[in-house]
Each structure stands twice: as structure tokens, then as C-alpha cells.
Amino acid sequence: MATKPGVDTIAVNRRARFDYDITETVEAGLVLTGTEVKSLRAGKASITEAFATVRDGELWLVQAHIPEYAFGNRTNHDPTRQRKLLVHRREVEQLRRFTQERGRTLVPMRLYWKDGRAKLLVGLGQGKAQHDKRADLAAKDAQRQMQRALRERQRA
Questions:
Q1: Of 17, 63, 82, 89, which has fewest CB within 10 angstroms of its CB?
Q2: What is the pLDDT of residues 60-73, one digit of tens each?
Q3: How much is the pTM?
Q4: Per-residue pLDDT for 24 more than 80?
Q5: What is the total count of domains within the chain?
Q6: Nearest CA to 90 among 68, 128, 57?
């Protein structure tokens, strides 16, 4: 994935596109404590188990793991605490309506720095069935074999 200037990736959820059919994405800011920021600057975070939810008119990130800051003191943060996501009110309402439909969810896709601020790319997706995942793997494998055959043909 190509990155833009001023954008540094912290964590990527590689299973998001495999497990979900992502229709669109929304960029959200995060409300973080000081030790969370320092831990993210060290490049440590995991969003593979995480999901986003709309609660009381606000968007929240649940089960994201930002480990405790190694040089923190007793006021260090809880690694899996729920974190508020910052998006416009009308976007929150759209996301709430989106998740009301059966099988739809908000999937964190990428955590990154943008102009010195932590951002989260949230995908609006619907869970894939097992046979859809198999079809995707088969298509990917077929594409890989075609590319390999083309390279072999060019060498000859």
C-alpha cells in the first residue's frame, strides 16, 4: 500500500479485507492519553481484534491493544481501554444507520500518523461467508499463476 507524504503507518489490520467486504472508509482521529501517544510513537499497537461501535451519539474504538509505555509510571494507561474516535456528527449518524442493518460492522483497517496526529481508517463492511473467502483465495492464486506464466514467457 503506497503511503502519502507526512503519513507514517503504525499498525495495519491485514485480515480486514479478507474477512469483510469493505464498501467505503472513514478517517477518524483518536482521543489518547500521553503514555498511549508515546507507546504509539514507539510503533507498538494491534488493531486486528478491534472494532468500532456507535454509542450515545459517539464513535468508540473497542478492543484495540496499545501496550503500556515502557518508561511510564503508575499512571500508565490500560492497554485495551475503549478509545473515543473523532468524526463529524453527521458521519456518526451515517455510521449508526449503517451498522443497524444485519451483518454490517465498522472495521479498523489502518492506524497511522498524519501531520503529527494519530488517525484511524475505519472500513464500513459486511462479513464474508466462508465460500466467499475461498473464492477470493482461488482468484488470488489464479492471478499469481498467470503472472508467473507471463514472467516465464518473457524470459524465454
A1: 89
A2: 999 999 898 888 78
A3: 0.77
A4: yes
A5: 1
A6: 57
